[in-house]
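Could you show me just one protein sequence together with its fold in token form as a worked example?
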Amino acid sequence: MRKIVNTLIIVPLALALLAFALANRRFVMVSFNPFDPSDTSLALTLPLFIVIIASAMLGVLAGGLAVWFGQHRHRKAARRFEAEAAQARNELAELRRNATVLASAQPPGAPPLAIAQDKQHATL
């Protein structure tokens, strides 16, 4: 299955990125000085494809972090519900264990302990 994914998705994507890189090899200056863009002390000279691919990667990273922080309350609720479910499973197992012990301790022919009756022999 993994080989199919590599062949059908990753290989064509890698070839497209390689073609993009070869088509955009020209160097551009990326300036980080908003007041004087021609200042070379706060500038980098990089190939255009590196600037575009790095920008895309930063965008994906920023979007992923925004979604991850936005879903914090859902992950917190899921952890709380999982803890409550585990506690309920433990309580159920303990109650079943106690019921088995009580049922095995009864004399044969005795009414089950779980069924209680009032004075008129009505089941409660």
